[in-house]
User: Which sequence fits this backbone?
């Protein structure tokens, strides 16, 4: 009986400690959508998957988008859909973050395009 109470106390303490850590350190604050309207967002991997969905979500709120992917031709349908959703400025950039040697050079090019275009 005492063993069950000890296990129950340890479980309860662990649960509340984990919940406290989650609430104070890991739960994201909600950003009001009106703050996104004038922002510039660079999305890598925007041709498919999570990156594509991020692009659509940001486009709905009127952000300026820079879409980056390894294949430039794959970005055009995503860019067109973003324009349809209400995004005024969409720039597509071919960018391969996986190549270590070119990563710094491509990253600087991506940042320069973002600064010059918007």
Assistant:
């Amino acid at each position: 009986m005492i063993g069950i109470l000890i296990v129950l106390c340890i479980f309860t303490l662990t649960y509340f400690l984990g919940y406290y850590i989650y609430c104070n350190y890991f739960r994201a604050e909600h950003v009001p959508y009106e703050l996104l309207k004038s922002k510039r967002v660079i999305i890598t991997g925007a041709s498919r998957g999570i990156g594509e969905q991020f692009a659509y979500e940001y486009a709905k709120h009127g952000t300026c988008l820079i879409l980056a992917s390894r294949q430039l031709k794959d970005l055009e349908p995503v860019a067109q859909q973003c324009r349809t959703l209400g995004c005024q400025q969409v720039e597509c950039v071919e960018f391969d973050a996986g190549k270590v040697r070119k990563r710094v050079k491509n990253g600087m090019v991506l940042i320069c395009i973002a600064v010059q275009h918007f």
